[in-house]
Amino acid sequence: MRLRPSIAGFVFVLLATPGTLRPQASPSPAATTELRVRLGFSQPGKHRPVPAVIWLEPLPGTVSVPFLPHGSYTLMQKNRTFLPHLQVIPVGAVVQFPNADPFFHNVFSLFDGKRFDLGLYEAGSSKSVTFSREGVSYIFCNIHPEMSAVVLALATPLFGTADSNDAFVLRNIPPGDYNLHLWVEGVPPSIVDGMTRSVHLSARTRDLGLLTIATKPSGTIVHTNKFGDPYDTHPKSPYDQ
């Protein structure tokens, strides 16, 4: 029996020279990896899930994935609440702040991220802010102290927010070396900054297990008004409702 050569598993490319065929192997997709992390708190007792974010900062020699804006970003003011409470955006993105309440608001932020004061604006109107630097911005209303939100501007799309079990999953990560950063609402920056760690990721799933925080989240953000003074418990402004 005469055997014929098999050509299975090759893609043939027709070259410029007539009658010449050259086998070319099909390219495989770029390998990526997955990262899993869980939060824990060293102090005993139950706590409700808190807003938290982890992100990866690529170190020299590791592929840097661009974080491009997609669509529009909005923090709506409705029923004396910011919606959503937490928003992660790329550096340079513009966030709209529409007022859907039937009364005035005054959105401001005086923290390490983006500092701004939008002043008083009425129901049905909107103002916007460009978040031009990386960092955490705590957002408040100068009229209603119960209103708060957080905008985290990042230079990388390799981030994840905590689920209801205080767990994170990051997918489609290029293998390499990274610094792992953490933010947890209600935990002092000195604590979470001290938990930054370097990680090496290969082309397979990496489970870092439990990241234990040496305190419990405070639950509420204690803050002053935009002038640095305590809020007036009996406001006299005709714009307040």
Features:
241 residues, mainly beta, Immunoglobulin-like, 1 helix, globular
Describe this entry's structure for a reader.
The structure is a single chain. This protein is an all-beta fold. It folds into 2 domains: 99 residues, Immunoglobulin-like (Sandwich); 84 residues, Immunoglobulin-like (Sandwich). The protein has 1 helix and 19 strands. Strands 8-14-13-10-11 form a 5-stranded mixed beta sheet, with no helix packed on it. A 4-stranded antiparallel beta sheet has the order 15-4-17-18. The longest helix has 5 residues. The chain is globular and about 55 Å long. The N and C termini lie far apart (94 Å). The N terminus is likely disordered.
Write the layout of secondary structure elements.
Elements: E1 11-14, E2 21-24, E3 33-41, E4 52-58, E5 73-74, E6 76-78, E7 81-83, E8 86-90, E9 94-98, E10 105-109, E11 116-121, E12 126-130, E13 135-141, E14 148-154, E15 159-161, E16 167-173, E17 176-184, H1 189-193, E18 197-201, E19 206-213
Parallel strand pairs: 3-19, 5-9, 8-14
Antiparallel strand pairs: 1-2, 3-16, 4-15, 4-17, 6-7, 9-12, 10-11, 10-13, 13-14, 17-18
